From TrEMBL:
<dbReference type="InterPro" id="IPR024078">
    <property type="entry name" value="LmbE-like_dom_sf"/>
</dbReference>
<dbReference type="GO" id="GO:0016137">
    <property type="term" value="P:glycoside metabolic process"/>
</dbReference>
<protein>
    <submittedName>
        <fullName>LmbE family N-acetylglucosaminyl deacetylase</fullName>
    </submittedName>
</protein>
<dbReference type="GO" id="GO:0016811">
    <property type="term" value="F:hydrolase activity, acting on carbon-nitrogen (but not peptide) bonds, in linear amides"/>
</dbReference>
<dbReference type="Pfam" id="PF02585">
    <property type="entry name" value="PIG-L"/>
</dbReference>
<dbReference type="InterPro" id="IPR003737">
    <property type="entry name" value="GlcNAc_PI_deacetylase-related"/>
</dbReference>
<keyword id="KW-0862">Zinc</keyword>
Amino acid sequence: MSHTLVVFHAHPDDEALLTSGTMAKAAAAGHRVVLVVATDGDLGLAASSYRSDGRQLGGVRMRELQESARALGVARTVHLGYADSGSGPLLYDDPPGATRFARADVEEAAGRLADILREEHADVLLTYDAAGGYGHRDHVQVHHVGARAAEMAHTARVLQATVPRDLLVLGIRLVSRLHRFPADFDIASYERAYSPRSAITHRIRVHRQIAAKRASMRAHASQATADDGDRTLGLFLRVPRPLYDLVFGWEWYVDPARRGGLGQVSHDIFEGLPR
């Protein structure tokens, strides 16, 4: 029996880094995969060429999202309609006709997502851990909104996409030996990000989905470069395949309904659900 997986992210390209392998694996197994983004990512960093002809970056990124979704086998994509909150210290005023996601009312936003969960009869919802991964304000909001929406819709399982921070830092250090990161890249911030290994409840092997995962990353071309050189996504795509497969061949989740630990990690996000 197939299940329905709803994946909730803050911006286009977030799915490529944290959950694309899991999404592709579920789709290949015959499950329905629905990708929901809170914002169009219009305040994301990108090379000036992506704005030079008057295009809105958000429109570019939503088209990139569709390309990523096709590569992963996603059945449906949805934009909740909120505006990107940006990553700098200043939270800009709301644009005309929209609300910055970081200041959106959690109950209202959760209601929008819960409507999708009910419509899709979702069995599993993927969101972010309590830290919002590396702490982006929109990612933290995804955590809160996703948790509340699952309560409203009585979704059977919520899994919080994350990375064991010790493995993340190791991977970054390996990549840094091959390629120089941007000057403002702060590796110390990743030493406090995501989740400790002891919290992990699900570790999903996605080595067979590596081609789909790379295609998902490549789809987000606007997020691979900046005027001063490659961004992190671009650097990851330049990593040689053996090392890339090692670093990106697993995806990790925390189930807040149970405790993790190396002796009790699941390898199937649908394990134990009614069939």
